[in-house]
Amino acid sequence: xxxTPHPAQRIRIVLVGTQHPxxxxxxxxxxxxxxxxxxxxxxxxxFPHADAEAMAAGAADVLEGAERHxxxxxxxxxxxxxxxxTARDRRIALEQQAPREAAARAVEAxxxxxxxxxxxxxxxxxxxxxxxxxxxxxVHIPADPGYxxxxxxxxxxxxxxxxxxxxxxxxxxxxxxxxxxAEPPASHxxxxxxxxxxxxxxxxxxxHKGRTPEAAMHKxxxxxxxxxxxxxxxxLLRGVLADAQRMARLADGRGE
Length: 256
Ligand code: SAH
Description:
Layout: E1 11-16, H1 21-33, E2 38-42, H2 50-56, H3 60-64, E3 67-69, H4 72-75, E4 81-85, E5 95-97, H5 99-111, E6 116-120, H6 129-132, E7 137-139, H7 152-170, H8 188-204, H9 213-227, H10 231-251
Helix pairs in contact: 1-2, 1-7, 5-7, 8-9, 8-10
The structure holds S-adenosyl-L-homocysteine.
Enzyme class: transferase
Subcellular location: Cytoplasm
Protein name: tRNA (cytidine/uridine-2'-O-)-methyltransferase TrmJ
């Protein structure tokens, strides 16, 4: 039950001023293995090129579908979120994000029908400050500070992998390879109905023993909301609570 188009289709990888065509091919391969297909090239130095095709291997379709632009502004003109990947800290006023946070933010935005770009710079000099100014945040892979500059395609692979995990999490799979969940998460109203019954049950079984119920309920709410149970699971939990409530009434001597 995925929205159309899939959020991955709203996420593009933008390579700016790439010098080595082999890196473009390797980036395309890195993308395709992680379910990403939208590649945009800003003023590549040599492209198309046999080295790009060789390094792309089975991802030739990603290369063939690549957009070409003269500058970064044109490549991201329709984007509502632009994240610039940098090998080092720059002294510019830009929010910094770790790859995992950036991927979560990108997938969330894409899920809200916002076009997203992840931008990567030139092998030798990275992104220019003027290019970074076009970005909403800078993403830095926390590499060894003594040598923090990854190969361009390797950096694309790290971000593509994080995007993959975030996309899988969003699709409700627990881990790569797990079957997608059959049922959507329970609605807000279903969760609130469950929490109300949980609160009643805790009272009925004298769970709080004179303590205020708020602290325990707060933690339990957080726990169950984190699990994102589906409607069927909520019904099962409510069945368990109903039996606990019935037993509490019996124990009270009030019977059914
Ligand atoms: N010497 C350049 C390195 C460029 S590496 C510089 O200092 O900027 C090419 C591109 O790969 C970078 O522009 C960036 O987009 C990406 N990259 C490399 N290492 C990275 C890292 N540690 N974190 C985020 N992006 C990185």
